């Protein structure tokens, strides 16, 4: 039973996390307008992404209160259906490339796997729990059928992290590990763009990533170095990038969210993107949901962050809405207490304690 004092404390944690989220998302929107005003850019894409995340988060919080099992289960099914029915998610080229649409499909499938595993942890019915975890495996199968190696890897990672989360007593260390993993992927992206890796490793990674993507990254880094303060303006990378202009089917994107923000909005844009991700981890750390649910959602959102550092996933509204929705579902307070499977009843209370 939760005491009145405990409920008040959880409410204060929720309020603090929500206040931080409002401030961070508001700052992201405001800075895109500032950068666009100085350089004549087009901030509509950033504003739409911020709105999509906020709308998804609010919807997830509401649905997570009322339907802690059915809502993430339905979200998982919707994401899986969307990926199979519309593998491109939007008109355009490169369905088989790690760039663009394939990266977005991998992100949606990762979110679907995370939502299914969150629902599995939230249900007390063993048969339903098994069915939900099998649906997470179905996301891996769908990724393989669509030819997306990234989807197979990220969905498998989310499923394994979810299973391991049931044995973890402290969520803080696990969330910190997810943050380190995201930083490592982003740092690797920056190192490839800056050509600072040893020649053998750099050449191998460049071949795997494709020369076109590496050229786009290097153009973005060059623009960032020349305009570190305000960037060149939102939406202007395609106008100023030599590699983008030489592409047969240019989309005006460097296919890396951190590098795109660095080029178009400067250092502040990158810091705000990092702040948005850290806010999500902060909200998960203080969430009243059981730790396995929280860490499963964190793993799925980290997979999306990694795909966004290596590709163009965040340029798709579907991915932004899905990320916000999963974060909202994992931080909502259900009306009824949730059962948690774990090593022992004695460790359950410690494992479910939010990070202070």
Describe what you observe in this structure.
The protein is built from 15 helices and no strands. The protein is an all-alpha fold. The chain is globular. The two termini are 20 Å apart.
Please state roughly what percent of the residues sit in beta strands, choosing from under 5%, 5-15%, 15-25%, 25-35%, 35-45% or over 45%: under 5%
| Class of secondary structure makeup | mainly alpha
Give the proportion of residues in helices: over 70%
Instruction: Give the SSE string.
Output: HHHHHHHHHHHHHHH
Number of strands: 0
Spans of 5+ residues with little confidence (pLDDT < 50)? Answer: 1-7, 90-100, 342-356
Q: Separation of termini?
A: 20 Å
The shape, in one word, is globular
The chain-level mean pLDDT equals: 85
Count of discrete alpha- or pi-helical segments spanning 4 or more residues: 15
Q: Radius of gyration from the CA trace?
A: 20 Å
Briefly summarize what is shown.
With 356 residues, this protein is mainly α. Helices cover 75% and strands 0% of the residues.
Give me some keywords for this one.
mainly alpha; 75% helix; disordered N terminus; disordered C terminus
């Amino acid at each position: 039973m939760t005491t009145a004092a405990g409920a008040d404390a959880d409410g204060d944690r929720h309020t603090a996390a929500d206040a931080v989220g409002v401030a961070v998302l508001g700052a992201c929107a405001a800075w895109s307008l500032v950068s666009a005003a100085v350089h004549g850019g087009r901030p509509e894409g950033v504003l739409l992404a911020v709105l999509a995340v906020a709308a998804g988060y609010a919807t997830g919080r509401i649905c997570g209160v009322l339907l802690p099992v059915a809502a993430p289960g339905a979200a998982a099914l919707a994401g899986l259906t969307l990926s199979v029915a519309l593998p491109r998610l939007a008109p355009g080229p490169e369905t088989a490339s790690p760039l663009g649409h394939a990266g977005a499909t991998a992100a949606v499938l990762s979110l679907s796997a995370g939502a299914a595993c969150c629902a599995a942890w939230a249900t007390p019915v063993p048969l339903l729990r098994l069915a939900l975890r099998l649906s997470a495996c179905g996301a891996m199968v769908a990724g393989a059928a669509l030819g997306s190696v990234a989807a197979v890897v990220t969905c498998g990672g989310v499923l394994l992290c979810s299973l391991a989360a049931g044995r973890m007593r402290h969520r803080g260390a696990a969330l910190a590990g997810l943050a380190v993993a995201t930083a490592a992927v982003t740092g690797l992206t920056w190192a490839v763009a800056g050509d600072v890796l040893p020649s053998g490793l750099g050449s191998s990674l460049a071949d795997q990533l494709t020369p076109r993507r590496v050229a786009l990254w290097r153009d973005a880094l060059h623009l960032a170095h020349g305009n570190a303060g305000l960037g060149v303006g939102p939406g202007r990378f395609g106008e100023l990038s030599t590699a983008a202009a030489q592409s047969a089917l240019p989309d005006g994107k460097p296919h890396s969210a951190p590098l795109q923000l660095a080029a178009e909005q400067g250092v502040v844009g990158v810091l705000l993107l990092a702040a948005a991700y850290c806010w999500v981890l902060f909200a998960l750390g203080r969430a009243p949901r059981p730790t396995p649910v929280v860490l499963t959602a964190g793993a799925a959102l980290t997979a999306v962050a990694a795909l966004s550092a290596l590709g163009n996933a965040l340029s798709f509204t579907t991915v932004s809405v899905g990320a916000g929705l999963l974060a909202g579902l994992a931080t909502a307070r259900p009306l009824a207490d949730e059962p948690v499977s774990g090593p022992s009843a004695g460790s359950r209370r410690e494992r479910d304690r939010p990070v202070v």
